[in-house]
Hints:
Strand content: 25-35%
Number of strands: 20
Largest sheet: 5 strands, mixed
Helix content: 25-40%
Mean pLDDT: 75
Structural class: alpha+beta
Distance between the termini: 52 Å
Shape: globular
Amino acid sequence: MKNLTHLVRNISTNIGLGLLGVGIYCLTSCGPMTDAQQTTMAGNLLMLSSQYSKNPKDARNAAAAGALFSTLGQMQHDVEVANAGRDQIVINNSSNTPAPSNTPAPSKVPENKQQKRTFYGDFDKASFEERKKMVNYFKNLDKSKLSPMELVHVNSYLTYARTGIKEDLFTPTGLFSYKKNIDFNENGLSEKNEFIGLNQNKYDLSKDPEIFFGFNVRNQDCNGDLKFKIWDMEDGNAIRDFTSKNYNYGQVRSLHFTSNDFPKIGKYKAVLKTANGKIFIKDFEITGLKPNYGLLEPTGLFVYNNWQDVNKNKKYETYEFSGLGKKVFNLDKEFLRIGLNVPNVIGEVTFKSYTEDGRLLGTNIDSKQAIVGWWTGRVIASSSPPDFIDRVRENGPGKYRITAVFKNNPSENYSVDFEVIK
Length: 422
């Protein structure tokens, strides 16, 4: 640091390159750096040079510019961490070479006070004029060139500058409970403020009978199988005990439960154990239950995303279908599946797909109905030849109708409407 200070002082006073020259000289003289490292270095240099400037105006400008560069460096650093899926990236390491993204961060990170600066802290300490400069910088960024994560951060900074409210952007970590997760801003990220009922102490399952437990860590040591149990805290019995396979750090693993999984109203404890033996615990209370929720099979012609035999009883129970009865599907991000279940009717079935204006897209004749049947979405390859549901994907966004008619019972005809979006 003494050498760097001496270099800045000599360049600023003796060579006369000015503040911009200092940054360019040092940045081009260093080894390979990430964007965050380069931006943070520039911020450091500008704030250091402000201490030795003989011109008060230059000093103020250098300090303001240094704070701005430090803020941008922190934002870039956050994005690099998110993209790498790790806890920490060392911005100023001794070799000036960033650690490879496929290796874990070192257990001890060198103390670097500048690295810990955040937009919020810089903004709170800045003068009125400095705040205006910071806000204008983020307002004038070319948003089309930002990644989804960068755009989220920029918008949160502007919200804080306008309202003083810090938006909680990051995905919850550890073991957490919630009712629903909705991507409100459609940026593909699971942000804290998009989890409904996050980590409540009490859950009433009498009306909305579903509850989820999520697990998310950025520690590679937690890779592997996850052992999960829910304990009844009144009688000490484990009411749920299973293993969730092949967890990889950085992903969010969601575990789905319903009113049927809990024998009674009362207090429970969820315990998750990672492959390396680390324990995560979540205490909660169930205050209401909906008996026999979703134990019957869905009937008629219906659409959904996926089905999983949660209780391993080889029955197609309603609560085991995700997205059942949805009206809108994004086929770039999810599956669209079609099921047909008409009790006491057998025989050949004709399926057809239509556009909103009645144009026929595709026809298929199948020998029998199926609850878990036809699907499309999130794939490139189609059936050969494409079937009635493949034609929907090929046609693109719009409103559609699927019909099903039994050959031996023409009066038994069914239809379902939905929309496909981008």
